Amino acid sequence: MAAKKPSVLIFGGLNTYSRALAAHLVPLEGEPLVSHARIIDKYSVAPPTTYLGADFPKILDKPEVDYKQANLTVPSMIPSLFDPPEGQDPYDYVFDLTGEVRQDRTEMMPFYETASKGSFDEKQDPKPSGTVGTWWHETLRILAGIEDLNLVILRVGLGYGPYINYGIMPSFITVAAVYGYMKKPMKSLWSPGKHPNHTVHSEDIAGGLWACAEWMGPLGRKAADGAAGEAIPFHNEKSKTKEVEGMPPHDKKMTAPLFNLTDDSKMTLLETGQVTTSFFDTTFEFFNFVENTLFKLKDDVVEDINEIHVGAWTEMVTKSNPPCPNTPLSAYMDQYNLEKTVVG
């Protein structure tokens, strides 16, 4: 008798990783890994209010897949989403892919600070960035404090691949395509660097998420903490512990299984640039000292750099065969994309 397949809930991530995860669990070709998958997000899929791609609507038509549109910021809506279809057991695994790191919105910047120079070891304790980062981190402490909760925290590198249309890597790839179209070298403000960028493909992220679920399922929290538990230090105001329900005391040590997921490439900025531009028949170079100095002295350096390629991007997508003026991608590089950062 075949073993019973698990059922899964996937919250959020429709414009990041949940589509890749759904394709991994219920592939268009081949045997599904789950008996049922429910995906919940704020977007409509019929008609679509976000980019879905060509394959994801076909996955949604699979009998194992159920999509629900819901505003997950409304607490009263959450309990019913955990109710399985009639006749089915409770869900076995829950994936929380909610929350967006949007560099183009100041209130949703990256959640942890890293230095612009030197390497950043995965064992280091990064400082949360701003209010959102502080409470994102505190949420991990609160979850870690729930006794016997089978929790795994997965921190991923710079994601790229199908269905990911914002962030450093998609922006980098898009701009490289523009310079290939212009038949000009793509140039960087920063030196080649010696530290890896720590990238990871969306299919590897999906595989990593599923591997974590299968690892945790039979193990249990206590054994998982012993095998892969990492401390989650307090980075908040002590007074908040009395104001927020479920928040552990500031001096209580919180531990939870935590993994970092990146690929094995360990490519530097130079190597990333060379590989990416090679696909578009151009090269990756660096501004010379004089150009670099002039750029860094200017207040509107972001607009000056974008002026070089954004116009060409518009021409490129409107004159393509067929034209694709409504692409979800953008060649505009915001200040964060142009800054020098280290990804731990």
Characteristics:
11 helices; 3-stranded mixed beta sheet; globular; 344 residues; alpha/beta
Structural overview:
By secondary structure, the chain is of the alpha/beta class. The chain has helices spanning 18-25, 56-60, 78-81, 130-144, 168-182, 202-219, 221-228, 269-278, 289-297, 301-318, 335-338, and strands spanning 7-11, 36-41, 65-69, 93-96, 153-156, 158-160, 186-188, 199-201, 229-231, 255-261, 284-286. It has a 4-stranded parallel β-sheet, covered by helices on one side. It has a 3-stranded mixed β-sheet with strand order 5-10-9. Strand 1 (7-11), helix 1 and strand 2 form a beta-alpha-beta unit. The protein starts with 6 loop residues before the first strand and ends in a 6-residue tail after the last helix. 25% of the residues are buried. The model is unreliable at 105-109 (pLDDT under 50).
- End-to-end distance: 46 Å
Spatially, the strands of the biggest sheet line up as 3-2-1-4
Flag low-confidence runs: 105-109
In terms of quaternary structure, what is this? single chain
Note the main sheet. 4 strands, parallel
Tell me the number of strands.
11
Q: What portion of residues is helical?
A: 25-40%
| Class by alpha and beta content | alpha/beta
Taken as a percent bin, the fraction of beta residues is 5-15%
Radius of gyration: 22 Å
Mean pLDDT: 86
Number of helices: 11
Helices and strands, in order, run as EHEHEHEHEEHEEHHEEHEHHH
Taken from the alpha-carbon principal axes, the silhouette is globular
